[in-house]
Specification:
The protein is α/β, with parallel strands linked by helices and about 375 residues long. It folds into 2 domains: about 180 residues, Rossmann fold (3-Layer(aba) Sandwich); about 180 residues, Rossmann fold (3-Layer(aba) Sandwich). Helix content is about 30%, strand content about 25%. It is built from 10 helices and 20 strands. The radius of gyration is 22 Å and the shape is globular. Specifically methylates the guanine in position 1835 (m2G1835) of 23S rRNA.
């Protein structure tokens, strides 16, 4: 699959990020991007300042920055920010009028137009539309885009409630636009959400774009039975931490450990920080909270234990390259004798992957849906 994208009247070289050398067939743009570009070019030729939300790999940022608009891109994904910067540089597009904000930053108040790739999570869409309702001047157009199958009645109702009168376009290449206009007046969406963690005295904090927003997910619940409980581990990483519940329980069981919470979602890292602060404030100084592309840049052979529930999708695509990256970088980061402990769906065959990479893999527990696996780093098995 070529990385050459024909967007509007321009051609770009666009890659997903981090680069997946094993599966270059995954495009860094889709038909919803193409539809947005075509619609905005036709209907808003005089637009000079543009706010983009959820530009997965920078396709929209590249096109509109090339048009010499002032562009601000907002995303909850650290990796999406890296992808946009990478693709802008690869296409030699100046960035003097381009800026990026994370999902928890205040939005700019004066823009001509907002375009939004509709996120998979309804709560996150509601949060973003709520934030827009607070800052947009009445009459500011807001154009959403998504695959037709992902535009539901709840999607339209969210636009109508938070932004204003809304209509949808005809479908083009299985994508559809949601066309709205700011009516003025702030409509609140109540995030973060706090909920009690069953069978504990803990309270978990979840921002809008964090997995399992209202209750403990079944994978984490099963993982609890196999978390480390030791005074020997000095350094532990909760990789892909989400709301931090795994790291929190580990910190309670390993009270002398330093725990690092890592996720590519800004909202996840902030949720983990709030979760620890709410429950183990006396241990807060033992923790670090980092947005990152897995363990890129972490010091080699510096950690005793890495805990992980690896994802098997990126954006809308099912892929195992993120899990591979997590396993490889965990091995690099672990001390000799250090342990990677993961939970995963049974069908994903992580046992084979870990055995090939580490030279060993132990099954700690399993049920009909999940397995918990442990691999130990042995520098004699490089």
């Amino acid at each position: 699959m070529t990385t050459q994208a024909q967007l509007g009247d321009k051609t770009f070289t666009l890659e997903r990020f981090p680069l997946d050398q094993k599966n270059r067939s995954l495009q860094a743009w889709d038909s919803a991007d193409e539809y947005l570009i075509s619609y905005v070019t036709e209907h808003y030729p005089d637009c000079r300042s543009l706010l983009i939300l959820n530009d997965s790999f920078g396709a929209l940022s590249c096109y509109f920055s090339k048009q010499k608009l002032t562009v601000c891109s907002v995303n909850d994904s650290y990796i999406s920010h890296q992808a946009a910067a990478y693709n802008l540089a690869k296409n030699k597009i100046p960035t003097t009028a381009f800026s990026q904000l994370d999902s928890l930053s205040a939005l700019p108040k004066q823009v001509d137009l907002v375009i939004l790739k509709v996120p998979r999570t309804l709560g996150f869409l509601q949060y973003q539309l709520s934030e827009l309702s607070e800052v947009l001047a009445p009459g500011t157009p807001v154009i959403g885009a998504a695959k037709t199958k992902d535009v539901h009645n709840s999607t339209i109702k969210a636009f109508e409630h938070f932004i204003g009168e809304t209509k949808t376009s005809l479908a083009v290449k299985k994508s559809r636009l949601i066309i709205s206009q700011a009516q003025g007046g702030y409509k609140a969406a109540d995030f973060p959400v706090n909920w009690p963690l069953e069978d504990t005295d803990f309270t978990i904090s979840n921002h809008a774009n964090v997995f399992s927003r209202d209750s403990l997910d079944i994978g984490a619940r099963f993982f609890f039975d196999f978390l480390p409980q030791t005074n020997k581990a000095k350094s532990i990483i909760d990789l892909g931490c989400g709301n931090g519940v795994v790291g929190l329980m580990t910190l309670a069981r390993c009270p002398n450990a330093e725990v690092t919470f890592v996720d590519e979602s800004y909202m996840a890292v902030e949720s983990a920080r709030l979760t620890v602060e709410l429950n183990l404030e006396d241990k807060f100084e033992q923790c670090r909270f980092i947005e990152n592309d897995c363990l890129t840049g972490f010091e080699r052979e510096s950690v005793d234990i890495v805990l992980c529930n690896p994802p098997f999708h990126q954006a809308q695509a099912v892929t195992d390259h993120i899990a591979w990256q997590m396993f490889k970088q965990a091995k690099d980061t672990l001390k000799n004798g250090g342990e990677l402990r993961i939970i995963g769906n049974r069908h994903l065959d992580y046992h084979d992957k870990l055995k090939r990479m580490f030279g060993n893999c132990e099954l700690l527990g399993s049920n009909k849906k999940f397995v918990v696996l442990s691999a130990t780093k042995n520098n004699g098995m490089l």
